[in-house]
Design a protein that fits this description.
single chain, mainly alpha, 14 helices, 67% helix, binds fe (ii) ion
């Protein structure tokens, strides 16, 4: 049987050491706005990544493709590490601990209760229905992983940011996470396709997930900017556009175009990003 995983490298779980003790909210020294836009990645990440892991764990017993199974296990380990890394930053950034608890609770509710194993807290008893819900969640994880792969490629190539005066440890975390997202970007798509050939389900999952993550990201950025004690101010579109023009945050057009590409039924995650670039970065990082 031909594996649904085409890449030849084996995905490696890593746990690089970080020291966030000197990290601060405004880690792009001359740009608190771009810092805060990118800071949303820390509170927004842990809950969905735990949900990816839980969904994959439930799907593993159904996977016959051994190469895919091994890739999925490595994926779970990588996502667990990412979730832990961002949780460490959340503890360091007092704004998250002190002011974003309701936001974190909302994320927990969405990913643990609303679209977790028991949708809206309802325990599914019918086996067919249970399996269909699992396939739906795999479709949603695949759509979310399309976004993370695209963002991973962006951060690996964020040269302008790299050349700016930045606090390097937080940037290292973003690039490590981004590189691993590129490294494992075909796994969620393969997991979904191994259990479902429904293009309708794949499309519907993305129609739900893309706006969900966009709204959660915007909501998180609003809250961080509003609660920032050193530089409190409302989030304004023109500030985002300025930061995007300077290549300090991903451009909306780039994200929109990437989102549209996903709706091609034949879309392959491997047409996004560059595996070799990601692996070279991870090697150089020494993780
Ligand atoms: Fe991740
Ligand atoms: Fe991922």
């Amino acid at each position: 049987m031909k594996s649904l995983i085409s890449e030849t490298h084996s995905i490696t779980p890593r746990r690089p050491a970080f020291d966030f003790s000197k990290s601060s909210l405004h880690w792009i020294k001359d740009d608190p706005i771009a810092s805060n836009i990118l800071n949303v990645i820390h509170p927004i990440t842990p809950a969905p990544e735990r949900w990816f892991c839980q969904t994959f764990r439930e799907a593993l017993p159904y996977i016959q493709d051994e190469k895919l199974k091994q890739a999925a296990i490595a994926f779970i380990k990588q996502e667990a590490s990412h979730s832990y890394g961002h949780t460490l930053v959340n503890r360091q950034l007092h704004i998250v601990e002190q002011h974003l608890q309701d936001y974190l609770k909302l994320l927990d509710w969405i990913f643990d209760d609303m679209i977790g194993s028991n949708p809206l807290g309802i325990k599914l008893k019918n086996e067919k229905l249970k399996k269909h819900w699992l396939k739906t969640r795999l479709g949603m994880v695949a759509a979310a992983e399309h976004i993370t792969g695209v963002l991973g490629h962006w951060v690996l190539n964020a040269e302008t940011l790299e050349k700016s005066a930045i606090e390097i440890e937080l940037f290292r975390l973003l690039q490590w996470h981004g590189a691993e997202e590129v490294e494992h970007r075909e796994v969620a798509d393969a997991m979904f396709r191994s259990m479902s050939n429904s293009i309708t389900l794949r499309t519907a999952s993305a129609v739900f997930i893309f706006p969900l993550f966009s709204i959660l990201a915007i909501l998180g950025i609003y809250q961080i900017m509003e609660k920032d004690t050193e530089f409190p101010q409302p989030f304004k579109i023109r500030d985002y556009l300025r930061a995007a023009r300077q290549d300090r945050v991903p451009k909306a057009q780039m994200l929109l175009k990437a989102g549209m590409r996903y709706f091609n039924p034949k879309h392959s995650p491997l047409t996004e990003g560059n595996t070799q670039q990601a692996l070279n970065f991870l090697k150089k990082m020494g993780s």
